[in-house]
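Apologies for my clumsy wording, but could you write out the amino acids of a protein and the tokens describing how it folds?
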Amino acid sequence: MLKISIICSDPEHPVNIVLNDWIEINRTNYELQLVECASNLREQGDFLFLISCSEFVKKNIRDRFNHTLVLHASDLPHGRGWSPHIWEILNGAQYITLTLLEAADSIDSGKIWVKEQIPLAGSELLEEINTLLFTAEIKLIEFAINQYVDITPAVQPLNISPSYYPKRNPKDSRIDINKTLDSQFNLLRVCDNERFPAFFERNGYHYAVKIENLGKIGNRKND
């Protein structure tokens, strides 16, 4: 039976719900473990998946597993770093590229196993974006587990200069009240209404702005 471990650093991250559901479905097929940090990992195993993992997992820990793999939401080597799909949606991206790659000493630089492109309609809010992304992540986890014998990992292209995204902070959810909502719609749609809501400040007060999709125009009772 394969021994599979997963690190997700933030216990409040919404992907944990999906991961726990997947573990519950598959607990009779594999020996499964979901932890918040490397210090809680089992001694050794077949797979270690790093999903929304903010911790750098050192080589001596990675070497305890046959495969240590990262799920990263960018078209590597473009978009190394933090929350790449959020930055790219802010820049008008019409799809998310999810990359399954090997963990390495340099962040997001390992060999690539496979990429999955996730199209966006442009109307999705964060919850819908997360559903699309998390579904693809589970798909690539299962791909790795089922196809690892046949995978030939590819070195990231050396003729492409990597680009990097910084870690997002609460201040990155600030709305400019002097700009139109339309010009800031992509910011509104990627803000987490509960953890990191959009906000603005006016006359010494701090206001949260939360957005909800009420459906297509003409489909609501009062339209």
